[in-house]
Specification:
Largest sheet: 5 strands, antiparallel
CATH architecture of the largest domain: 2-Layer Sandwich
Number of helices: 10
Strand content: 15-25%
Distance between the termini: 22 Å
Length: 399
């Protein structure tokens, strides 16, 4: 899970908890304030009723409690907090939904009084508390957005690093900030620059070496034709053939370190045909092709055909009994040959210049090339030994 998803989940949880707490506090305060107000103005109402015949006392009570006498009142936007039926009248206390004022409505015999109260400080306090909660939620949102803005360059950094890892040596991070992320971007750019120069220098050196080696090899192969001694001629031909093959495999192995893949879509059958063409097999009886389920592959056909060619070549070379079997089923291409089990784990043979001591035919670069091609495609190379047969499986993992 990405950092952004984790932050989003944490922010959502924090926001939900904050809203729940805010609503809960508002409900508690509203109930507490309503109870206090009801108790306060119920006392006022009783005092007015006790002095209903004394106008002067009622006027004093109105002044002391800062009440405002009304002649009429619209109850549409009001909520009844308290109502008590009396023998000769009633007491009613109402609250305006959108104000901090309350209404006291009294009726006794033929007299009716309507009083509007002054603004209640308790309600103002409650509103201030609510405002602080809303402000806290607003600040939480601002902080979250600010953190996302701070971390947003990480997406660009991740993309450029992935591109560089896939072989795009020109990948650079365009971030000019002076914080830790800016320092990271600057450090990566410097590292990428150094690696690009190092890789290009090594590629040029290897290309020059390969070119310089091919020239004397070609001259040597031409000179061999003039040798009349067949045994010496055959030996020298093999030596130069091995030198040429070693040079080609080393150059091919080095190209895999920095080259970019040319992705296309093709069938497993097409891949097998391309691989067999690279082997130049004259005797088709050496191979038994079994296609249980042909499937599509997304990858670099040239490189994958080299990888499969190496597996087929090894299978034929080290098989104790022909034909070998190439079996195709969903997402898997298996190369099966009868022979001795590998004496070490597969990882050992994936390193350059490693092979079975009893099978010193070649230079031990074939599986190393296969491993690099498979890794560049994010595929898998699997090995198993069943019923006297070695099974190398190229697992493509395509959907």
């Amino acid at each position: 899970m990405s950092i952004f998803k984790k932050l989003s989940i944490l922010f959502t949880l924090s926001l939900v908890v904050m809203i729940i707490i805010g609503v809960w506090i508002d409900e508690i305060n509203s109930k507490r304030i309503d109870d206090l107000i009801k108790e306060k103005y119920l006392k006022v109402s009783n005092e007015i009723l006790e002095n209903i015949d004394n106008k002067e006392t009622i006027n004093d009570l109105v002044t002391n409690y800062k009440l405002k006498k009304l002649t009429d009142f619209d109850t549409k936007n009001s909520e009844i907090l308290f109502f008590r039926k009396l023998t000769f009248g009633y007491i009613k206390i109402l609250k305006n939904r959108f104000d901090d004022e309350f209404i006291i409505e009294l009726e006794y015999l033929d007299e009716k009084f309507i009083f509007k109260t002054a603004d209640e400080e308790n309600i103002n306090d409650k509103n201030r508390l609510n405002a602080l909660v809303y402000l806290d939620i607003f600040l939480l949102i601002i902080i979250f957005l600010y953190i996302l803005k701070l971390l947003s360059p990480l997406k660009n950094i991740t993309i450029q690093i992935e591109n560089f890892a896939k072989g795009d040596l020109n990948s650079r991070i365009d971030i000019k900030s002076n914080d830790e992320i800016g320092v990271l971007a600057k450090t990566f750019n410097q590292m990428a620059q150094n690696l690009e120069e190092l890789i290009k220098t090594r590629e040029e050196l290897l290309r020059d070496i390969g070119h310089e080696l091919r020239t004397p090899i070609a001259k040597g192969k031409f000179a061999i034709e003039k040798i009349e001694d067949f045994s010496k001629k055959e030996l020298l031909q093999k030596i130069f053939f091995d030198l040429e093959r070693l040079t080609n495999e080393l150059i091919q192995l080095e190209k895999l370190n920095s080259s970019k893949l040319e992705i296309s879509s093709f069938s497993a059958e097409t891949l097998i045909v391309e691989s067999l063409e690279k082997l130049y097999i004259n005797d088709e009886s050496k191979i038994n092709l079994v296609i249980k389920e042909n499937f599509k592959i997304k990858g670099d056909l040239e490189y994958l055909s080299i990888a499969l060619k190496n597996l087929i070549d090894n299978a034929i070379k080290y098989s104790t009994k022909l034909p070998i079997i190439i079996e195709v089923e969903k997402n898997e291409i298996k190369v099966i040959n009868e022979g001795n089990r590998l004496s070490k784990q597969l990882e050992y043979y994936l390193k350059p210049f490693t092979q079975e001591l009893s099978q010193r035919d070649g230079f031990g670069l074939g599986l190393s090339i296969v491993e690099k091609i498979v890794n560049k495609h994010n595929f898998k190379l699997l090995y198993s030994y069943e019923e006297g047969s070695n099974i190398f499986t190229l697992y493509t993992s395509n959907p």
